[in-house]
Amino acid sequence: MLIFAHRGASADAPENTLAAIKLALAQNVDGIEIDVHQLDQELVVIHDRWVHRTTNGKGQLSQYSMLQLRTLDAGLGEKVPTLWEVMQLIAGQCTLNIEVKGLKDVALVLALINKAQTELGFKHEQFIVSSFDHHLLAQIKQLQPDLKIGALTASKPIDYALFASTLGAYSVNTDITFLDQAFVNDAHQRGLKVFVYTVDEPEDLAMLYHWGVDGIFCNGPALAKAFVSSISSGR
Ligand code: G3P
Ligand code: MG
After folding, report:
1. For the whole prediction, is pTM greater than 0.85?
2. Which residues are designated catalytic?
3. Of 2, 39, 49, 173, which sits with the fewest C-beta atoms within 10 Å of its C-beta?
4. Does ligand 1 have an atom closer than 6 angstroms to the CB of 33?
5. CA distance 134 to 98
6. Among all ligands shown, which has an atom nearest to the Cα of 97?
7. What are 27-45's pLDDT values in tens digits?
């Protein structure tokens, strides 16, 4: 079961910052998940449409210029990073799951993914682009059919993972709340991976491991890794 650091190692460093990414890399994660919004022609790594929860600023992200955004403190003196800065830091050391929250120009993310392969040593298969916006995923898939797509859901659809296979997705990225063995089996029968968020409790990790889930997004990857390796070795 793969361990993805959710918003970086966000239990121990400010979420979606370079510090959280560095910590996740130090913990040897399999992958890192970050949230991305478009601001003008730049892609920035932040979860919310409003800046007050994760920075010392106020108001909507869209009201900020890049220069203004970069003056904000995203926790412990960290700045809101750009997607390119995150890519430079990871530089092919693990998988990068880019969760697209607010994006107008799909080409921007595709261009950075291509540039990261040429300039930073990433392999194409190290990228997953996920979103709750399935229209956006369809657009991405059309432009770049070989890019891995993670179809996000926080529901248990009546036809389980059909929506993800229709999108040509690589994985179903699902909230743990509505997941069950039948959903996992259905996704696997369709050839999809199942990645689950947000999982930090040992009982949940054990349950998902036994259901055959392929990966989890967790805020505390060091603990999750230790726990998963203890179950897999039968200790
Ligand atoms: O990508 C998994 C998870 O991050 C989706 O929900 O709100 O934490 O971005 P959220
Ligand atoms: Mg996310």
Report:
1. yes
2. 6, 47
3. 49
4. yes
5. 14
6. 1
7. 999 999 999 999 999 999 9
